[in-house]
Amino acid sequence: MNALWITVALLTAGFAGWPVTALVFKLARTIDDRADAAKAAEQARRAAEDPSADVTVDPVRGSHPDETGQKVDGELTAEPEHPASGAAPAEPAVAAQRILRGGAIIGILERLGVCLAILTGQPVAIAYIVAIKGLGRFAELKETPVAAERFIIGTLTSMLWAAGTAAAVKVLFLS
C-alpha cells in the first residue's frame, strides 16, 4: 500500500505541479501589469501637469519592457540586441530568442526529485537539486533579468508544491 501512495505522491507532485506553477506565473504577470499601468498613469498625470515634459513613448504591442529596457512578449521570448549603428551584425538577425528553454521538463524533474527526497527522508538532496538547476541556468540568468525573475518564481512554486504534496502524503498515509 505504501508503494501506491508513494506513486500517487510522485505523480501528483511531478505532473500536477505545472498548472499550479502556470497559475502563479499568471498571477505574477497580472500584478506586474497592474503596477506598470499605475506607473504609466502616474507618468501621464505628471506629464499633463508639466507642459515642459514633452516625452513620447512608443509602446510595442504585446510586450512590455523590463528593468533594463529589454522587451519581452507573452511567449517568453526576448528581442535580440541590436548592434550599434554602423556596426555590422555578427550573425543573421533572429526574430526572437526563447527564454528558459526546457523549463517544463526541468520543472517536472525538479518536483519529482524534491518529492522523492522528502519521502525518503533525505531533505539534503533538495540542496543538490537547487544547485544543479542554478548552475545549469547561470549564464542565462546572468544575461536576462526577466529569466532570473521567472527562474525564482518557478523554482519556489515547484518546490513548495512538491514539498507540500510529499509532506501531506507522508503525514496522512505513510506514518
Main traits of this protein?
65% helix, 4 strands, two-stranded antiparallel sheet, 175 residues, elongated, single chain, mainly alpha
Can you describe what's shown?
With 175 residues, the protein is mostly helical. The chain has one domain. 65% of the residues lie in helices and 6% in strands. The chain has helices at residues 2-15, 17-49, 103-119, 124-143, 145-173; strands at residues 63-65, 71-73, 77-78, 97-98. The strands form 2 sheets. A two-stranded antiparallel sheet has the order 1-2. Helix 3 (103-119) runs parallel beside helix 5 (145-173) and helix 4 packs antiparallel against helix 5. The protein is elongated, with a radius of gyration of 21 Å. The model is unreliable at 91-95 (pLDDT under 50).
Ordered list of secondary-structure elements with their pairings:
Layout lengths: L1 H14 L1 H33 L13 E3 L5 E3 L3 E2 L18 E2 L4 H17 L4 H20 L1 H29 L2
Antiparallel strand pairs: 1-2, 3-4
List the secondary-structure elements in sequence, H or E: HHEEEEHHH
Count of DSSP strands? 4
Question: Main beta sheet: strand number and arrangement?
Answer: 2 strands, antiparallel
Overall pLDDT confidence:
82
Termini separation comes to 12 Å
Supply the helix-strand structural class: mainly alpha
Count of discrete structural domains: 1
**Strand arrangement across the biggest beta sheet:** 1-2
Low-confidence stretches: 91-95
